[in-house]
Amino acid sequence: MEREKIVAIVNDFLVNEFEVDGDEISNDANLKNTLGLDSLDYIDMVVVIESNFGVKLGEADFKKMVTFADFYSTIENKIAEKNA
């Protein structure tokens, strides 16, 4: 899956399901500060990512993510690993 499609899908569900302001989403924006999610929201996000991309993100994955670019790259890498 191309990165542009990953970005579009992620941004769409963040805006529509997690009520994130789309104007605040950028590659360099801090993921945790922008999302402001609690632990239950992260569980919901894992479910949404799995249903959209067929990959699972764990706690260790989220700990490594600082920016939205990191978030997109992690999903992209998980998809590539799954398809390898």
Automatic annotation (TrEMBL):
Residue intervals of the Carrier domain: 4-79
One Pfam family cited in the UniProt record for this chain: PP-binding
InterPro entries: ACP-like_sf, PP-bd_ACP
Protein name: Acyl carrier protein
